[in-house]
Amino acid sequence: MEPINSTELIRELKQTSSALLKKEVSTISGFSKIELRAIVQQTILVSLSMNSGEINDVNRAFYLTRIAVMVQHFVHSLAGIMVSTIEKLWSTLIQVLWSAISKATEVPLEKFKTY
Questions:
Q1: Taking the chain, what is the end-to-end CA distance rounded to the nearest angstrom?
Q2: With 90 as the cut, is the pLDDT of residue 61 above it?
Q3: pLDDT higher for 112 or 62?
Q4: CA distances in angstroms from 8 to 14, 21, 103, listed in the order given
Q5: In this structure, which long-range contacts are made by residues 71-80, counting pairs with CB atoms below 8 Å and at least 24 apart in sequence?
Q6: pTM above the 0.85 mark?
Q7: Who contacts 113 (Cβ-Cβ below 8 Å, separation ≥6)?
Q8: Distances in whole angstroms, Cα of residue 61 to Cα of each of 37, 55, 66, 69, 74
Q9: pLDDT tens digits along 23-43
């Protein structure tokens, strides 16, 4: 049995967290770029249509609402991705800590559930 080295454990937690978050940030960034591009394109189309008179006082609210709904869906999807990322991070950190305890005590904690 070897006692837990706090400096080494902190380093491992940081490295594990950083690796996971870099991967997730890449996913979020790609998703954001695609979605924001679509929102901007729709915004440009609406502004051009308003300038040409195709969108007028009668139907303007409909098109503006469509853009607002796109943004709302984007934000809700982004929130879901972030919640998922936080849950993955929590699980990953628990695994590192359980592993450290197992090594220090020679008690296999892999059998324990982490909620």
A1: 27
A2: yes
A3: 62
A4: 10, 20, 13
A5: 71/39, 74/32, 74/35, 74/36, 74/39, 77/31, 77/35, 78/28, 78/31, 78/32
A6: no
A7: none
A8: 22, 9, 9, 12, 20
A9: 888 888 888 999 999 999 999
